[in-house]
Structures are given as C-alpha cells and as structure tokens.
Amino acid sequence: MFAAVDLGSNSFRMHIGKHDDEAIRVVKSARDPIRLAAGLDNKGALTTTAMQAALASLVRFNAILSAYPLDAVRVVATNTMRIANNASEFLPAAEKAIGYPIEIISGEEEGRLIYMGVANSLALPGERRLVMDIGGGSTELILGRGQEIERVESFSIGTVKQSLSFFPGGRIDGAAFDAAILSARSHFEDAAPPYHPQHWKNAYGSSGTIRAISDAIAKNGLGKDLSYKSLVALKQHFVEAGHVNRIDLAGLRPERASTVVGGLAILIALIKELGIEVMTPVEAGLRMGVLWDLHLRATKRDRREQSVRAFLQRFHADETRANRVAEDATALYGQLKPAADAHGRPLYWSALLHEVGTVVSPTDFHKHGAYLIENADLPGFTTREQRVMSKLILSQKGNLRKVAELLSEPDFAKAVLALRLATMFMHSRIEVDLSELRIRMKNKIELDIRKDWVAEHPTLSYWIEKEREWWDEVGVNFSIRTQN
C-alpha cells in the first residue's frame, strides 16, 4: 500500500492506494483547499498565515497516513514551493508536520508524473496523446505515445494567479475575461507548434480544474463535450453572474468558483492556441502518477535507473568504466557498514555518471559533471536527490574542502570515501580484488591492502598518500596498513 501527497498551489491532496492486479485502487483520499499560491506576498515569500494553514493541513494528513500500513509514502510539492523565496525556511517545519520528506519537484518532473498517472489509467498502449494539466501555479503539457513521454513542458501560469490578476475581489466582466484569455495565450503561443493536433490522436485534461469545468458544462446543459463552443458558453455564464459569489452551477462547488474562472481563461487560451476541437477529462493525474512511480520502484522498475542509463548514452560516457566504478563503489560502501541505506542508490548512480563531465572538458571533469547532474532534467529524480549526486560527483577527486560541511554526516562521508577509492583504482588502471581489501571508517579511516599491489602499481602509494593528506585537511585521520 502506497501514499501520494500533492502539495499543490491551490489544494493539498492525498491518495492512499493499493496495487490490485493491473490497476491501483484508491482506498482513501483527502483534500484541503489551502490556496498556497494566494499566500505569497509581494516579495514572493509565503506569509505566516499561509504557512500556518499549510502546517495544519499537513498535521491532519499525517494523522490519516498513520492509520494505514504503508509500504512507501512520497510527498511532492509543486510550483508555489518552487518559487517561494522562503521555501527552504518553511520546509523543515512542513516535513516535521507530515512526518515524511517533502520533495520540491521540477515542472518537467510534475508533467512526467501526471502523464504516468493518465497513461496507466487509460491503458491504451499505442495511443498518441496530448495530456494537459492546469494547476494552481503552473500548467503542464505532455505529448506521448502509450507509456512513453516524447515531450513535456511546464508553464508558469496557473488558476490562482490568473484569477487574482484579472478578477480582483471576485469581480467578473467580459473585458477582464478577454484580457485573461489573451494573457494566457501569450504564455503558450511560442511553444504551441509541437502540440498541434497532427502530433496526437486524443487530448486529455487531467487536472481538477478541467474536470470541474467539464462537470459544470455537462450538468448545466452548456454543451455536450469539452469544446471551444461549450467553454465560451460557460464563460458567458460567469460574465453574466458578475461575481464569483453569484455563480450558481450544478457540479461546481462555490469555494472552487474563485479559481475556476482563471482556469477557464487558461483552458480557452489553450484550446484556441493548440487547435484542440474536443478534450476528454480524465480522473487521473499527479497523485496517481506518484502511486504508480512508487509501485514501479517497489518492483525494481525504477525510472531513475532508466534516466541514468539514458544520460550516460547521451553524453557518450564509457559504460564499461562506469559500471566498474559503480560496482566497486557499492562493494566498498557495503564494507563500510552505513547506518542506513539512504545513500546506497545515489552512490551507485553517481558512480555510473562520474565521468559525464568529460563531454565538457577532461580538465576538472568532476566539476563539470557535478554541474550537469545538479541542473539536468533527470526524469524520476527530485532536486534534492540530484543535489546529493552532484556533491558526490564533485567529491570524487581532489581536495575535500569543497564538501567539508557535508562530511559530518557519517553515511555521506562513507559514500564519498567509497566513490573516491573506486575511481582511484579505476583511473590508475588497478585491477583490485575487493574481497582482499579491508576498509573501515568510524572516528578515522583504516585501509588494509596487499603489499604486492603497491609493488605492482608504483603510483598506488602516491595516490593513497595524497588521499591521506586530503582527508587530514578536513580533520579525518587516514591510516594504511599493508599485508602479505
């Protein structure tokens, strides 16, 4: 059983689901209309009121999660947490409130998870499709075929800001609506061509906003489908109401009206800009995508592994060397007996990617590689995971002062040591039987190696001595013993 928590710009939502044959069955859902995006002040910071409301919701979600026997929980935060300039200050309190790490995901990763949720729910393996999600703080467009994503983009326009900007105080008129639509079209016009109808067979809308709009149209006789004509009819109904508080439509909850008006403007803009005749709303999206992602990880089909392998090929890294360093680093890390396994997979992936920086320059390739990994679009990875991998890749050679502040975490220090030794052996062309090597790290590092290795590889003693100096610079004693 898995749980997906989505800290969106409009609402906080949660699904608890269980994989059942070929589907994931949702057994519990929860939603709090936090409207986090509206809680940003004029300096781009979350207000105290907004943070307090968010924390109260997270405490409630924690109580719900505690009632279920969960195998894994993933909490993701989207656009507002991406752009809030005090998000890093708020994050520790938020993680404490919900009891799990919170991942601030990129817009592209958000789009991939949305598509994963839709694709697994539709179960149409060969269909070429466009998936659209209009959220509180951003809008995602994803083009794909079956389970495969071909293109994904995130646009920083969402229902909350559009509503606040063009319908202040909840007032609605025709001129404001037209301005909101025109503004939205300006966000998409340059990016539109790859998403035109010749590139897909069916278009799907995955967000709660699109489903709410579809329900309002269907239940109030405003149209038979989600088309430009029916959307304009709904727009006219809103304009005639004149204020969000006077909107009275079956299928549209009153508290949703204030953001749906902005969402409708964005949807009309997209329908026109992309040339979509009819869109199909679908009951799937980010949370279902997160649940499927957790299921795939549990069944050893981790998308992150695929991302790393694709990145290796993209940057023409030597996979034989990469695999050797990854295997050796993993074996050495196991000898060091880490307290937990938090760095095991990041170490393995970092070792695989340790030479990707050579595509920029063989000089300081570890620095180039660290930059690439921290800033690349790696499907399945969170910003936090990429930052950890970046630091590991940076630490693979040279002085340790550049990561000194991170070495206070024992398991991270052990991962750094394992990667440094693995790369040292490989770059020195030393074929080491790791079963004949002993490495320990507690208050100091103790390395036992065979005496004949030093005799056979004269540079080994030089590199180990340099390693001793570099660890000594950060206050860690490194002792080496040779044995027959």
TrEMBL record:
Source superkingdom: Bacteria
Pfam family, one: Ppx-GppA
Keyword Translocase annotated: no
Keywords per UniProt: Hydrolase
Signal peptide positions (record): none
UniProt xrefs under CDD domains: ASKHA_NBD_EcPPX-GppA-like (cd24053)
Keyword Hydrolase tagged: yes
Name of the protein in question: Ppx/GppA family phosphatase
